[in-house]
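Exercise: predict the structure of this protein bound to magnesium ion.
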Amino acid sequence: MISEERIRTFINSLDRGNAPFLDELEKEALGGNVPIIRKDSQGLMKFLMAMTRPSNILEVGCAVGFSALLMAEYTDPDTRITTIEKFEKRIPVARSNFEKYDKDKKITLLEGDAADILADLSDSYDFIFMDAAKGQYLTFLPDCKRLLKKGGLLVSDNVLQDGDVMESRFAVTRRNRTIHERMRDYLYAIKHDPELESVILYIGDGMALSYKL
Ligand code: SAH
Ligand code: MG
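Solution:
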């Protein structure tokens, strides 16, 4: 049996690292208890940026802008990124980070609840990063599918909930039970949708990749 902790440490030790400004922001965010994409998932995102070379990216769940800046750093100069955030405390921090790191031309922040904003969007995207409230992924799925181009990729973060998702519903606390059920339904939905080919990866806190057929 491979020790999970050790194998992750080993894999991460091979990483050549991110641009220094991202390390700085990552440290700051983690210090302030702001959730950001995990180290090994960052590696996957960089890989996907290089491989799929998206021109129009949509992110659901911006927080202070770390993952948007990561995507901005590792895409072509003319790639456009739209990101959504509803938490008032985080919006100005994200905005100032985009300016500070000179990516405010590339990244557009839409303020408000993704449930409303997604419904109003009509552009089409070749890459969507779903990273908002885990209990809402299933609600956002129809709009994400509508906004995603054929041949585009939907990447969903934190789908394994630190392993909680595989436990029986009776083993999770009442508070987490709704999220637990909804995430299971979400994973079932993306795996059984005839328009998607999805794979669930045991990386970071679990990431699902869904390719639109
Ligand atoms: N993508 C970021 C982390 C996002 S954390 C990164 O890796 O750097 C998830 C964020 O989604 C939180 O800041 C939370 O406020 C936001 N969020 C949750 N539900 C939302 C919703 N319905 N609409 C908009 N933002 C939402
Ligand atoms: Mg996340």
